[in-house]
């Protein structure tokens, strides 16, 4: 079944803990937490100390998206602070093989992320190290942007690559995800939908998560 990962970038920061607990109760699968450094992306968000503060509030998987240059510098810290999946941008490091190996050595699931303009060929040599591949469906840095339709072809190609190589990493998508774009991504091959502004703007989060599932159920071929 498709997994739903609320991006807490769209939460009310004055009540961050409550928002995470409410999404947990609403039935989400992962909690997606963006770490932005103001350099790799033009925005600044949460750091390891925020992970540490909210970690005791839920048992859900913390899905850490590192939007930072030289992510190797932060792997120890986010791992110790409670991240379960740690994803690094292939564009942010000269040493992607080493970064993924370090994440694995820390006992965490390793993910690689591709910006919309990055070709899948960039990650071909390291796919066997990945538990998750995150396809950005907007340019990273901000919530509330429009889904980039060309991402669908990339998701389809990645699914084919996974089958051809006999691998089992999850395919995650992030940016502009609503019921329609989420359904299209699931049809293309996505396993995990990150949703920020659309999900947080719904009045009933539990219903919205169920609705994500029912929208995707309707197609019948990926549940
Ligand atoms: O990584 C991100 C932006 O860089 C996000 O996870 C972002 O929060 C997605 O938000 P939305 O669903 O509103 O597009």
UniProtKB/TrEMBL annotation:
Catalytic activity line of the entry: D-ribulose 5-phosphate = D-xylulose 5-phosphate
Domain of life: Bacteria
Gene3D superfamilies, A to Z: Aldolase class I (3.20.20.70)
Protein family (similarity comment): Belongs to the ribulose-phosphate 3-epimerase family.
Purpose of the protein: Catalyzes the reversible epimerization of D-ribulose 5-phosphate to D-xylulose 5-phosphate.
HAMAP family found in the cross-reference section: RPE (MF_02227)
Protein name: Ribulose-phosphate 3-epimerase
Organism: Eremococcus coleocola ACS-139-V-Col8
